[in-house]
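As a warm-up, study this chain.
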Amino acid sequence: MNADEPTLEQRVARLEALVEALQAGGAGGGAGSAQADRSPAGPALDPDTFWALEELIRRAPEGALLYTGAFDVADRGPVRWQYGGTPDELLAADPDDLAVTLDALAHPVRITLLQLVLGGVRTTSELAERPELASTGQLHHHLRILVSAGWLTSPSRGRYDVPASRIVPLLTIWLAARPT
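Now compare it with the structure written out below.
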C-alpha cells in the first residue's frame, strides 16, 4: 500500500460521513461534490461546499453553466479564466464543431502531448525523446490534429504551446472525464 493512500479505517470513516451527509440531505464530498434535487423549490445547498454554485444562482437565476480556474502553469505564470453559457446556447451549438474539438482530445497520445506541453515540454525534439510517444511521423500527425482543433499553437517552427484561453477549458474537460 502507498503511504499516501488512506487507511481502511480512514476510508470507512469517509464513507460513513458521506452516508450521514446524504441522509441529512447534503451532498458532502468537497470540491467534487454533485447534488441533484428536482423539487420545485430547488435543492438546499450547503453554502460551504457549493459557494460557487450559490453565487452563480444569485447572478443568473434563470440558469447558466460556468467554469473557471486560477492556477500557475509551468514556466508561464498565472492563468485566470472564466467562461460560461446558458443551456440553450450550449444545446444549440453546432454538433460538427463540437465533434471536431472533442475528437482531437479522444486519443491517449494527444492527451499525453497536451499534458507534456502544459508541463513545459514544448519542442518537437523534446517530445520525440519521450518513450510513450511513438514514431516522429505519428508525433507530427497528432500535433497537427491538436493545432487544427485549436488545442495547441505553434508560435515558431518545432515549438508548441497550449493557448492561455484553452488551458482551463482543457483541464475542465479532463475534470469532467475523470472517473468519479
